[in-house]
## 1
Amino acid sequence: MAGAAGALRREVARLAERMPLPGEPAEIYVLRSRIRSDDLRTASVAMPHGRTIWVAFIDSIVDASRMESEVLRPLQELAAKGELPKGAPEHPLLPRARALSSLDEWATDLLAGRAVVFSPGVVVSLDIQAFPHREVGEPSTEQTLLGSKEAFTEDARSNIGAIRHRLQDERLRVETFVVGRRSRTQVALVYLADVVNPDVLDLTRSGLSAIDTDAIRTANDISEFLYNQTLTTIPLSEQTEKPDRVASAIAAGRLCLVVDGTPFALLVPTTFFENVKDGEVALSGAVSKGFVRLLRLLGMFTAISSGGLYAAVMTSDSQILPTPLAVAVSNSRTGVPYPVLTETLLMLLVIDIFSEATAQSPGGIGNTLSIVGTLIIGQMAVQARLASSLMLIVIAATALGSFLTLKYPFSYTLRIWKYPITILAGIAGLFGWMLGLLLFLTHLASLKSAGVPYLSPLAPLKTRTLLRTTVTDVARPAMDLRPESWNVRDIDRAGRWRL
Amino acid sequence: MTFRISRWQMTLLAFLVSTCVTPFVYDSLIIVAMRRHAWMALVPGLAVGLVGTGIALALMARFPGASVTEYAPRVLGTAAGRVYLFLFGLVLFAGAPANLRVLTRITRFTELPRTSPLFTAFLFAAVVAIGCHFGPEVFSRIGEVLALFIAAGLLVIFAAPLPAAVPARLLPLSGFDWRAYFAPSVFSSIGSLRGFLCLLVLGGTVGRTDGLHRWVLPAMLLAWALLALGLAEPVMILGSGMAERLRYPLFSVTGTVSFRWMPFQRLTTVTVLVWEMIMYVVLAFYLWSGIHVLSSALGLRRWRTWLIPAAAAAAYLAGVSIPRFLSRAATNTWDFAVVGVGVLVPLFLLLLAGRRRAAEGRGA
């Protein structure tokens, strides 16, 4: 430590010799030469015998009132007594002061929203951080009728607080990592120490330590680094903006990553069936919960398969339909000038363009786009013989189905995969349609999220978990046992089971 | 092998590999030979299947955590072991084109009459190759997901035509000519219950083997019951006289069933889709195990390198047009070969291993 301090003094002296200082001490000059930013401000507190305490801070990320009450006023009191600030816990007036010993630490703390205090012979930093963040609001991508209405914000500290509010357990651990050489994004690992699967924890810890990039923008960046999901459309970690869901997942033995600057937390491991689970837990009885989940699964199946089914039946397998339906379907295509496959792909593309435009537009414009899409384009397409009326029903079912998944990123999977399935169906009828579905199934079966097969607990089969917490939630047993899929350290929630 | 599959997955694979032929492969030749006693053609097959399963389970118990690729060279010696594995690998690989061939023919018969079988064979083989690429863990999982749909489909396929069945058409049970068992098409059915192949090739990958027989043997019996029903049902519905005139009697029977209250009115559609699901898992098994066993025999480390050429070869062999008698002869030969390399040689391995252990015991 003494060696490092000596080196720092020599570095400051060397720079001070080279450049004249405009009133500020050499330390501040060194900081300014490193962080060339106009919002780097300084303040000074005069001490007896002509000495001065200097404070450096970045104006845009500190709390001005705390600057006054927690930094300047205590320093003035110290100066009046002729004392020098020291690192905590030695000084009662500066209880959270941290002693710094290197130039890197000055810069890091300054950029983290701390005030760096230079007094003769000692440098400390004080936390007065006030990164701008919005107030807690309602979830925007995971709206459920019956679930909690609270959503995460971009502030990691308040997000962790929201989790702690729901899990007041002494074994709840929060480990913080700093990721991104430039962004220095704080990523917090949150888990229950006596429950979480140690393999997943180690994998995530080592993965976080190994991330070498300049900046992290979203929680999904972390997921892609950790779980190497660049080649799949399927998210291998679950992004959620709901603290209640995170708390429930942590209690079930999963691991949460809270990424500062993003309102989404990551949950790992995840499985396919997590895409249909949320909100319905507030329904009463296992049957209602199971019914809702079944509806969502059916919706997802409709989204991915109905375009292909239409193409298959209209291309080569119309004889499978009951005769009156076959005639009606055939009539609806009268006058459509191009092949079924072209018609289907074209309309699927149109609806995807509308979906994307609606999703990316502000509320009012989004609603207008929906009306334009459904009423005007749809009706006109039929009238202009660009598509059959049955095609419009198929497209509507496809679009609605893709939004029945509760996880917005997974809806993109459904939207993307329907194209190869439709093309195969257009080429080889129902035979090709089934091949397309098998291809999708193969992809799902080949994936693992943090070592857990993505189709678990269906494949590999974990009957107890499948029946009690996947097909539905049977309240008592579901609350007694954690899902086996997560391979948790302690499967028994209530301490009743002898396993 | 680094793969791990569960007892349930192994059971499903054994069941699917045994039942893959159910709806179609047994063409009318068996009914021609045995008339109303056609289902009895499978009785020797049941015995052979159960014996083969017993032998495979005994080998698994004798060599825990090992598959045939590991214990065969140990018991037979490296050279003889490799020769055996080479033959075994060829037989397994041949299962892919043999089954794919029937699938493409049926598809042409029903769904895609104007499409070349070569095209459908290549399309199917390409998708199967993707499943194979990830190994048995993944295609076993696919089997698990499909199990429910397959079970429901098989139930509908077999149950829907039953109201029209007249069980008396199978009677009397006595009075059949036992020499009919030696007709080539009937005799070859001794290799119809082939689930033991999965136990031989994947035995070492099963995580827990305790009580595996309690899972696999009922599955094999159920598979046999379905196979037998596949032969008995057309006779019960159409009578043996009419059934023997149809090329694929069971398939024709399902073609007569119509669900007017459903969007899909023809049962043949369900039949083809269910069969496609079964064949996906079965072909993945034959293709993967063929390449894997052949790679072991030839000392090749990277089996995945051979996946695409092998899938292309299987698709070509399945899709290319050859005379029916030749295709029939190839299928019969393959059935015998399955019994040879899957039952007889493993029996020899088991005896030899037992004898060695006894000799080692005396020596100690």
## 2
Amino acid sequence: MIYKHRRALAAVTALGLLAASGQALAHHSFAMFEPTKQIRMTGKVKDFRWQNPHVYIELTAADASGESRNWTIECANPGILNRVGWKFNMIKPDDTITVIVAPLRTGEPGALLKQIKIADGRIFGNGGPAGLPNIPIE
Amino acid sequence: MQTLTRRLLCATLLLGVSALPAQEVRDPPKTRVANFDRRDLSGTWDRYPLPLDAHQDTSVVPPPPDIPPPPLKPEFKAAWEAHQKKVDEANKRGEPIATGYTHCIPDGMPAMMMAMFPMEVLQTKRQVTIIQEAYNQIRRIYLNDTLPAVEDAEPGFWGHSAGRWEGDTFVVETVGIKPHVQFRNTPHSADMRIHERMRRITPDHFENMVTVTDPAYLAKPWQWKWVYQRRPNYKMFEYVCEDNREYADPETGAARMRLGSKP
């Protein structure tokens, strides 16, 4: 638990420092996504694209309202994801996965991934720049 | 700290503890490993400190200070500040202004040297080559070369670089950066020069003191320091923007995200 707190504190501090210095975090600004609101969804993978500048998951899932939609979920890039333990073929069409995401502020069904639980039960983050989940995945 | 302990243990094993007086065993590791080749920058490196890496030990090498704002001449400063304000406000609204990144345009110099992603340095007698994983950027620094005159320096993203060793410091001069290749939205003229002093400070860190001069736009030299930490045994990934789903809204200029995969 202490470790978790230290990690969260380090993350918050680093984010603050980066924001203050205006340093580029990644390929682009994440300001188009909700800054604090996150949602958890479980659904079926329609497509998985391992590519630059971003990896994308197309997910058919219902959000809290119960409406099933096709979501485009932006992940980091293959380099970042490899460095946090992902593998290019660990997600396949028709897999059932759970994600925590920050949705687009426009209300469109697009989102930035924060954390993912893949079909075999393993849980992965989306790399440092994308930030941490603020709700539990299970 | 674990890394430090491991290094200490390895050094101790290599040197043979039993042959050493007790005093030497307690010496800090830096005195033990002082014999690394200070003129060898080759290897793979991360920026330091690495953002959001809670495992990183920052006690050995102090993190560099924040990069100061560009010391623009008064006649350019107001416009720069107004643009920064516009960027901040757009981000707060959730409508970030599209940038080169939106269009998958590489950083160029000097931004490439912030090492957004891992960076590889290859060193030969005639050339130091720096590869940045993000956008497959490549920078070639020719040793003891003569830089072209401003009117002959064909502008590019990484420009023309000449390097030389001054003792243990690798000194690099760069000219010929395209006007729209800007670091932190800072305008520059064809006379901009980027001066870098790279120096290994530990076996696993090197620093880069960057000084940008531009008599047309800057009131004084703009200076900051970047530090890099070795990422051992790392193999660089390729980076091709094969399906960029970011685009600039034609009406507002805000960065947007295209939904759905192309068939």
